[in-house]
Amino acid sequence: MPRLRLALAQTNPVVGAFARNTAGIVDAVRSAAARGADLVAVGEMAISGYPIEDLASRPSFLRAARAAVVTLAARLADEGLGDVAVVVGHPDGPFEPRAVDVSTAPTAIAKNCASVLQHGRVVATTAKYHLPNYSVFDEYRVFIPGDDLLVARIADVDVAIIICEDLWRDGGPVARVLDADAGLLLVVNASPWVADKDEVRLPLVTRRATESDTIVAYVNIVGGQDDLVFDGDSVVVDEQGTILARAPQFEPHLLVVDVDPAPATDPVETDHVQRIVLDTPNTTPGELPGRPALPLDIAAPLDDTAAIWDALVLGTRDYVQKNGFRSVVLGLSGGIDSAVCAAIAVDAIGPSNVFGVSMPSRWSSDHSRSDADDVAARLGLQYRTEPIADLVAPFDEQLALTGLAAENIQARVRALILMGLSNLDGHLVLTTGNKTELAVGYSTIYGDSVGGFAPIKDVPKTMVWELARWRNAVAASRGETGPIPENSITKPPSAELRDGQEDQDSLPPYEVLDAILDLYVTQAQGAADIVARGFDAATVAEVTRLVDRSEWKRRQGAIGPKISGMAFGRDRRLPITYRP
Predict the structure, then answer these.
(1) Which residues are known to be catalytic?
(2) Nearest C-alpha neighbor of 130 from the set 176, 179, 88, 168
(3) Which is the most buried residue in 19, 370, 507, 541, by most CB within 10 A?
(4) Given the DSSP bridges, would you call strands 253-259 and 4-10 parallel, antiparallel or unpaired?
(5) Do residues 312 and 27 lie in contact, with contact meaning Cβ atoms separated by under 8 Å?
(6) Where on the phi/psi map is residue 135: left (φ > 0), alpha (ψ -120 to 50), or beta?
(7) Residue 123 in contact with residue 153, Cβ under 8 Å?
């Protein structure tokens, strides 16, 4: 008979919103208690949101976080939930500054912690040991590492508690789990999603379970935070690697599961292991009296394209809503990029809150105008047309603009229109550039690059087409009209800033371009290495030149959801002034 009823609360915190985040945790504990849970866990930094970046250096922020944990414990008791044991992630501090190596300069004053709450008080706290300092993470700069493994005994089960990166790395707390003879390893996480993440995350959880002969419960936060997206995907795996429960991706969820870990034994004193004993609110050891067995709760993982779409939608929705915007505005050109961005926005916040603007110029084709009208009608969004020819003409005439200068002024006039509407009505401007364009600088600075959020910033051009076809197929399966006009998908891409212009006039085919960019940007291959793979040397030289010279533009661009292992932004930090 199962020994422990465990609840994993997949919450969506907002950085710094302590009262809001705490209220969400209380709601989750209330629901878990109603379902008979003995132990409830929420994610890493669920109290404060994640990542907190340099807020970790503010003593006032850390004191507020510590107070929020104490307040949460008291509120749970006040609401009759104090008997339930709750594990919650949060920052803690301020502590005495840690000095880095031999430097005497003060640095981190915070710790990345998980606390156990019961009976209205903080029973114990543990701090993260392995502090990631790669990709989007800079935890070693802002946190002080912990050193102990926390083991909590409840319902005759020893539960080892660790935090995110401590699961991923050998050594440290995870190496002590076997010595501590724990029956359940509980991991609280704030693990950002990228494509193919599940190909490494679930195998890791499974491997840790089998190698330590321990049930592993992995709880992750969900939601968008600036350019990061957290997918949840919380999971419980038994000692043989079998999935016992799994939460859906990209949505809040309370995962409740009965588990039967090995019973606790008399502990052997082990260095760096902190042990506590908790009350069991609902059971006597080894029993779950009066509670019917729970149905299986195992969500199927999403396929790759569906996961990418859901990540983009969630990242866009949370950026809009968490930053207090009610609506968004974007230019609709009739092209594939703006159509996909509009569909993402409508899926995120609804058609009544999405405002599209067609801004035809003297060079705009009839099909571009009709395709823009079509996508607006398909999506049911708010729509208007603002021709720009009469606005562009004074610039051309006064400055005698020709060539590229005349092309770019069109994009900048469109930007003025969008920003004017943003200021007038409070919309957030969405910029519609894709990763391929940003890589090679095919966006006009202060023109089509203008905006506060970029939904497809990390989506290569070839994937934009894939997403469009996928979203139309989903609509067809529901008996709905596809949101993306077929002509927007099939016609040759063009900025239409001069007569007869097409993207491939000055760029290689997008299939070739994206393959080169993947090697150069994502895999950090040099030009010679890329040529050795069979690509044309002149093409590679031109593409890498365009990427290098466009770094200054990317530094000024809007953020957007990170879906790849190497997104432009904090993933990739290269100098602007650089001569290879």
Answers:
(1) 44, 128, 164
(2) 168
(3) 507
(4) antiparallel
(5) no
(6) left
(7) no
